[in-house]
Design brief:
alpha+beta; Aminopeptidase; 7 strands; 34% helix; globular
């Protein structure tokens, strides 16, 4: 960990001043902000419904089958990541990751991955996700984090777009995200 990061308060973004945005666990109070964030980030067929987010932030979170983290700047939610955690699986599935278009390029997605790796249950040893084949920026990020493409899925999205599944050991993502942040 860098000396600068060591001085930052718990939950502060690595390398950021103490008043910078913070990463925290999302709750029901974040429902509207996460829905609005996804609408800014994704097309109409790619963002989740209100009912899905109510479930992820409510019952699923209480049961420990969903973990959602957000980057906050005051009351504003700048970015969010959600992981599904089936009790019968050692793989966490990243179900959604969104960074406000005006905040992209600041390393928020990488920092969300880093925070998620620290908060996943100990039994989780791998992480997977799906992304549109055409989403080159996201795919580059996932590959920089050590994720590898394991499958192409024709017609994966409701509009018929091709999806790509990525997978990586948790330890690889932890090391890559820490190395890139200088922690």
């Amino acid at each position: 960990m860098s000396a600068e990061a060591a001085r930052s308060p718990p939950g502060a973004l690595a390398g950021a001043p103490a008043s910078a945005p913070r990463i925290s666990t999302a709750g029901r109070r974040d429902l509207e902000a996460i829905i609005a964030l996804e609408r800014r980030c994704f097309g109409p067929v790619d963002h989740f419904s209100r009912a899905t987010w109510r479930h992820l932030l409510g019952q699923a979170a209480q049961r420990g089958t969903s973990l959602t983290l957000v980057v906050r700047d005051g009351s504003a939610v700048l970015a969010a990541i959600n992981a599904l955690l089936r009790s019968s699986s050692r793989t966490a599935r990243i179900y959604s990751i969104a960074v406000d278009p005006g905040q992209q390029g600041r390393g928020l997605a990488r920092q969300l991955f880093q925070a998620l790796m620290r908060r996943l249950p100990a039994r989780i040893d791998a992480v997977s996700l799906e992304v549109r084949e055409s989403n080159d920026g996201a795919r580059r990020l996932y590959e920089r984090l050590g994720m590898r493409m394991v499958r192409t899925m024709s017609g994966h999205y409701p509009d018929g777009a091709v999806g790509v599944r990525y997978l990586a050991p948790r330890s690889v993502i932890t090391a890559a995200s820490a190395q890139r942040s200088g922690s």
